[in-house]
Design goal:
The chain is α/β, with parallel strands linked by helices. 38% of the residues lie in helices and 13% in strands. The strands form two sheets. It has a seven-stranded mixed sheet with strand order 7-1-2-11-8-9-10, sandwiched between helices. A four-stranded parallel sheet has the order 5-4-3-6, sandwiched between helices. About 9% of the residues have low confidence.
């Protein structure tokens, strides 16, 4: 195994390409799906009444032309993109380091991803999980052979337990998102997305805003699950390049990875966040020109309840790599989720659809597309980051409405108190 955890590669596109080569046998090349119905909705101006009570009230609604290409990481191993970073992190360890085992703290997808990667490599995995973690995620993590160690729900309690495990076992810490090897691993999805979109447009030119509409009038989805071939850096010189990619922003590993992979290609990169209870720390941090270090929110997009990490912030705050971050409401997230499930027949969690919600409802983003894309418009890649939810959870969300709807994670403490806390990954 090349390289050491203490000497991560540079945050560059070639590093992401090398990472893809290293992990492609362990991950799925998830499909890219399109939907004419959602293209039409995204390209239709919002009604003036939809803007009432917002900062855009009284303005003429934007009228962009947008064609959407959905990268379905909900079909990734463990049901989310996190497998990419976990497998890449382990690929960077030496045999001696792997023999020590690995440890992390997470109540969600990173816990399962690291457990799976460790099991695949025959490595011991110690996962510190808060006692408030959902039973299904605890069971899934144990099912991959990891030793689950419970802790309190605060970050201090979790980190103290991790330190105890390291002292006791000598295991190496694999952070959920704020490390170059995690960032680079997550960025591999962008390489696949580029190649898959190119292949889709070559097969059906009407999928792109740059081509005249031809025979593609079906409102249903089309997809491409291209094979895990090497995706090189010459792609940007060919037709079919995406104008933009938008991805959810929580801790920032995925967005920083995508921005690293697409740097210099001409494709713009944007982040999407919930606005509920200050969950839009990335957007607020960019406006204030400094990283927001604490987030306490019970947004239904529970995978995005974490503040942007320090290393990820260096990428996301670089205007040459990330062109902006936009926020959407709980109601808009639920609306986008309903569209994906009902119109596209794709099962996703709330965190996965914030990018689509921005494309459909955020007037600031839509005006950018209208102004910069002109009559031609933009081809936009949208990352659907995961699908780790349940029918019961979704039913509760839509039964109670956006103001009451919540995911199970991070809601109730050991003494029954309501908790809004940062549970990484």
């Amino acid at each position: 195994m090349a390289g050491a955890w203490s000497s991560p590669p540079l945050l560059t596109r070639p590093s992401v390409e090398a990472a893809h080569e290293a992990i492609k046998e362990h991950i799925h090349c998830t499909p890219v799906v399109t939907s004419q119905t959602l293209n039409d909705l995204a390209s239709r101006p919002q009604s003036p009444t939809a803007l009432l009570g917002t900062v855009f009230e009284g303005q003429t609604p934007a009228s962009p032309r947008i064609h959407l290409f959905f990268k379905c990481e909900n079909y990734q191993r463990i049901g989310a993109f996190k497998s990419r970073g976990a497998f890449h992190a382990l690929s960077r360890l030496t045999k001696e380091q792997l023999a020590r085992g690995v440890v992390t703290h997470s109540s969600g997808n990173h816990a399962q991803a690291l457990a799976l990667a460790a099991q695949t490599q025959g490595v011991r995995a110690f996962i510190v999980m808060p006692t408030i973690s959902t039973p299904s995620k605890i069971a899934a993590t144990k099912g991959y052979g990891a030793e689950v160690i419970f802790s309190g729900s605060t970050s201090q309690e979790r980190e103290a337990m991790v330190e105890d495990v390291i002292e006791r076992t000598g295991a190496l810490l694999i952070p959920p998102y704020d490390h170059p090897n995690i960032i680079i691993g997550q960025g591999t999805m962008a390489l696949e997305l580029e190649r898959q979109v190119l292949e889709l447009i070559e097969g059906d030119p009407s999928l792109s805003v740059r081509r005249k509409d031809s025979t593609h009038t079906d409102g249903g989805p089309t997809s491409n699950g291209a094979s895990n071939t090497r995706v090189g850096s010459s792609l940007e010189q060919r037709s079919g390049r995406l104008d933009a990619v938008i991805a959810p922003l929580g801790g920032g590993g995925m967005l920083a990875g995508i921005a690293t992979a697409l740097s210099g290609t001409g494709t713009k990169v944007f982040g999407a966040e919930p606005s509920f209870q200050g969950a839009d720390d990335g957007r607020r941090g960019l406006a204030a020109n400094h990283r927001v270090t604490t987030v306490k929110t019970l947004t239904i997009a529970d995978g995005l309840r974490t503040p942007v990490g320090e290393i990820n912030w260096t990428v996301i705050s670089d205007k040459s790599k990330v062109n902006g971050v936009f926020a959407v409401t709980e109601e808009q997230i639920l609306s986008a989720m309903k569209l994906v499930i009902e119109r596209m027949k794709v099962f996703v969690e709330p965190s996965a659809v914030v990018g689509l919600a921005v494309c459909l409802y955020n007037e600031e983003f839509r005006k950018i597309v209208e102004e910069e894309g002109g009559e031609g418009g933009w081809d936009v890649g949208v990352v659907l980051s995961g699908g780790n939810t349940t029918l019961e959870a979704i039913s509760r969300m839509f039964a109670t409405g956006d103001k009451e709807a919540e995911r199970a994670e991070g809601k109730v403490g050991e003494k029954g108190e309501r908790i809004a806390e940062n549970v990484a990954g």
